[in-house]
Amino acid sequence: MKIHTVRARSAAEEFPRAEHLATKIAEVAADPIEVTTEVAAMIVNRIIDNAAVAAASLTRRPVAAARAQATAQPYSPRAGRRGAMVFGFPVPQRVSPEWAAWANGVAVRELDFHDTFLAAEYSHPGDNIPPILAVAQHLGRSGADLIRGLATGYEIQIDLARGICLHEHKIDHVAHLGPSVAAGIGTLLRLDTETIYQALGQALHTTTATRQSRKGEISSWKAFAPAFAGKTAVEAVDRALRGESAPAPIWEGADGVIARLLGGPDAEYRVPLPGPGEAKRAILDSYTKEHSAEYQSQAPIDLARRMRARIGDPEQIASIVLHTSHHTHVVIGTGSGDPQKFDPHASRETLDHSVPYIFAVALQDGTWHHERSYAPERARRPDTVALWRKISTTEDPEWTRRYHATDPREKAFGARAVVTLRDGETIVDELAVADAHPLGARPFGRAQYIAKFRALAEGVLDEDEQERFLDVAQRAPELAPGELDQLSFTVSEQVLSRAPRIPEGVF
């Protein structure tokens, strides 16, 4: 990996195009290096993972709304252009690719249940899959093309997350997703460096937004935000292919992202990127979720389940303090200052960003479920509310250090729980990484991804359709041009009818 130092430049400063971060990223995307077998296998895992959580969310209101919008954008195939698939619809029903990216992106993101990477910034790199797959389906590309494009999408988003912190400046993490999708599509289509460069600039410029989508009363926009970034990146590539250019230098300009949205004129960032001919392996450093909740609550859920027997009756608990990283404390803990994180009537999106709520339910139930654990009647149970309000978080410098560690053996996203009982007894335990993490007690492999798919698809996809999809997904690298339409799934009208009725909109 080569480290690129990135800083703002004054308007008068000589700054050759070859030195722009967008050029460096475009060069990585245009590099024809083949994908390793190990990386290809992990991409297959994540295709299965995305489809699993999309199936589970298919009848939820935000997903139905996005699907209704996409349905209003039908596509009639023409020479070299096929349209793209939307999860749940039969193969003949196609929509314009940017709208497939939109609908499928919301379905994948709605339950906060797919893969994650945490470093200087955090990310959900599986958000790259819907838009890159939609373009691949639309243009009749092969499975090998898709795998190459996804390897780039994961690489760029993860490398940007390693080097550039967004949340410190209250910028949402999808600002790294727009460029990564544009780069991934560039690789998929084997575009030249100049075209990718222009698409990157447009994608970044149009996908920067504040973090209010993850603050206070968190709404359904949390699921829509990455889908919007993917849709916007597809459109950016389309414009670049038509010869349109972008603001430049987009990161380093005097009024660019670094100078005006991030650290300012004096800030300096170090972004690692593969060198020429170096394989794109970043996906191997990411990890999926066993539980449908914000990633930094994965280990606390497992920790709560482990502590249940030692604690005994939750009614005897006087207080629980979770000692954890700065990021966990201020984003999903009491350091956020958000009263909504203790509101029994809060939205699901708010509850899945409340580690006090999540720890309380996991401790009481000994399990976690993507629907039952968030049900209004579950959140409003008096004994749960009482326990919930006894739980707080505090920053521990050691957990913060481990959160930012570059050594995978040191990096941690967990907590130390100090449980004080009414009689004064103290019970203490800690867990650094979730059980499903590559270094956890039960790391996810292909068998676990398939089991997750079957569990979440139950009652949504019939068994034959489940088996068909799993067979095709595991053969994704070998699919011929035009066969990528099979990387979707169809459900019955009866299943789709379970979704809430969506009012008419503009379209």
Main sheet, how many strands, which sense, barrel?
4 strands, mixed
**Shape from CA axes?**
globular
Order of helices and strands: EHHHHEEHHHHHHEHEHHHHHEHEEHHH
How far apart are the first and last residues' alpha carbons, in Å? Answer: 46 Å
Number of strands: 8
Extract low-pLDDT stretches.
none
Q: Mean pLDDT across all residues, rounded?
A: 96
Class by helix and strand content?
Answer: alpha+beta
Helix content: 40-55%
Specify the number of helices: 20
Q: Determine Rg (CA atoms, Å).
A: 22 Å
Describe this structure in words.
The protein is of the alpha+beta class. It is built from 20 helices and 8 strands. A 4-stranded mixed β-sheet has the order 6-5-7-8. The protein is globular. The termini are far apart.
In short:
The chain is α+β, with helices and mostly antiparallel strands and 507 residues long.
